[in-house]
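2024-03-11 09:14:02 DEBUG pipeline.ingest accepted 1 chain
2024-03-11 09:14:02 DEBUG pipeline.ingest length=555
2024-03-11 09:14:03 DEBUG pipeline.predict start
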Amino acid sequence: MQEFSILIGGKAGFGIDKSSSIIGRLLNRLGYHIYIYRDYPSLIRGGHTFSIIRTSRNRIAAHTDKVDLVIALNQETLNLHKNRLKQECLFLFDSEQVKVDVKTCGLGIPLGKLLKEENAPDIMKNTCIIGAMVKALGLEFNILEDVLKKEIPKEIDLNIKVAKRGFDESKELIKIDSIAQKSLPLLSGNQAIALGLIKGGLKAYISYPMTPSSPVLHYLAEIADDFSLDVLHPESEIGVILMALGYSYMGKKSAVGTSGGGFCLMTESLSFAAMAELPIVIILGQRPGPSTGLPTYSAQTELHFALNAGQGEFVRFIVAPGDAEEAYYWSCVSMNMSWKYQIPSIILSDKNLGEGIFNFDISAVGELKEETPILWDRKPPYKRYLFTENGVSPLAFVTDKDAIVKVNSYEHDELGITTEEPKATMLMQEKLLRKEKFLLKDIDEHFKAVNVYGDKNSKTGLLCWGSNKGISIELGEKLGLKVIQPVVLNPFPVRQFQNAVSGLKRLICVENNATGQLAKLIKVHGFNVNEMLLKYDGREFSIEELEERIKEVLK
């Protein structure tokens, strides 16, 4: 079998997210590549939630509209998704909650009855029906048992017993075979970002929970002791970034996570970080707006906000990784660039990247190491804002008794003392902006800031950024298109982008926003797109949807 997709759905609070993780890890054991797409409302309980687990022999990073199996824990799931089925009756359902039109259609499992007989709580319905799914796919129960032991920390014996009852009640509907292919670990984009920050030397992570970046906070809190991290949850996003800048002032590498609404509150401190030349990394998880918008869905709407946030003119490093490997790599690079140039770095993510589950191949990640910032040579007096050729002043920290480290949000001289003198103001502004020239040179010489995939000889290009990378590559290869993905978005790598689009006669831009924000950005640098394929309903493109839209513009 080349690929297979499963949809599992029910009410929020039914454990759909955990179920999709277990199913994904189960199929990953068979050697398949995995991608998991999650769709859920902003409700703790109630409302419809579902996940699509797609497996393939090839690397994937997008879901399909059509699925091979629907697992329905309630009637709503079947009503909403039965039209997705490739084969009309290939679904599993809770026979006590779901009514079907034809008695012989699908496979019903009396979940409530089985749980009552085992004196198990309702939340274990998902474990029971996953057991039934294992039998339906022609798999051995011991594979599921092993996955459950690793995935479920509480009441594992009862969970295994309940899963076995579902397995025994089921029957084989379709046969999935394992393949001779090494299984790669599964990571969410948020987990990859967290691990990349740690690789870059993270010592403190501060965040106020805000979807879709909240899982970074939860994950780092879980592993904080393993990496000697300070992980804090202050009272507001204003407190978050100010606390992180305090860590930076002390010489501790820090990062924060938020979404658009929280980033709004951080912008004054973003400018303070630039003026005080305090390194900071910000994870900006994009979601639909304005205002609260769709809090549990996804978008690519904060590119220009990130480019222009904060008062005054200053340099910032902005990246938009497209998969787990890039999330890991560029998070580490962001930390390094922040401390090398003493500037803010912004990692643009979204729900589709952050909460999507991907196979992670560490061998595909470029060489990384934590870079040491430029430190004071200990020749007094210490000048915190010493004028240098590249605009970067040597660092000393308040723990050093021989240095007076004066940090100032006002305009200041080399010692950090407030000034309003015209010449000093101009020199200090030029110092701040001078960093961009050297940062861009660094990017051009040491990093692949623009990636090219697909048919590199094609005259038609598909332009994408962030989480649209995977689907664009898959369809670019299928349709014979050149795929161009800028990862560094500021300072924009014009030379690398020019090389990437060289020879193209047509450029099609794929974005999850309503205004074509990347298309606008490249226009500033002298490049134009011919067509824009925009989606702005909070959901990611499916394979079928984007393929149809690409074919329409290619006619």
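2024-03-11 09:14:41 DEBUG pipeline.report DSSP finds 18 helices and 20 strands in the chain.
2024-03-11 09:14:41 DEBUG pipeline.predict end
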